[in-house]
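Task: sequence in, structure out. Protein: PTS glucose transporter subunit IIA.
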Amino acid sequence: MVFNFFKKEKEELQIYAPINGEIISIEEVPDPVFNQKMMGEGVAVIPTEGSICSPVDGTILQVAPTKHAVGILAKDGSEILIHIGLETVALKGEGFQVAVTTGDKVSKGQRLIDVDWEYIKLHAKSIITPIVITNSSHGDKQYIVTKEKEGIQGETVIITSSET
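Result:
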């Protein structure tokens, strides 16, 4: 009889919808940086309302100076980028109110960025919000994207990560 007392349990990470909205595949995002997965594996949400909240427990890696994106380091080492809208860097921070700073510890569901969706709709290419694992091509993790079509902030799992 063999005992596996020291065998490490495979770690799984669930990444939740950071906002309410329609879930679409990353390939449907009308931007080659995202739809060709240049930034990494992921999914996108077409937001209906609300603030961007943390999809995991983790640490804020970076908040873009133009406030349109936030990076989070999850406990399993996954680096999650939430990019609010497309071509929103050109807004120079208008329409965004950031509630966190680099180095902050965050919990799933914690408010990260308030967004003026009407302003974004009027002044940016799109409100489609990609959620991407920027280090998905490194390491020994497999990322499985949801088949769900509607995301509820903090409730709908949009990506599951597990060790291979």
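The longest strand covers residues 41-49.
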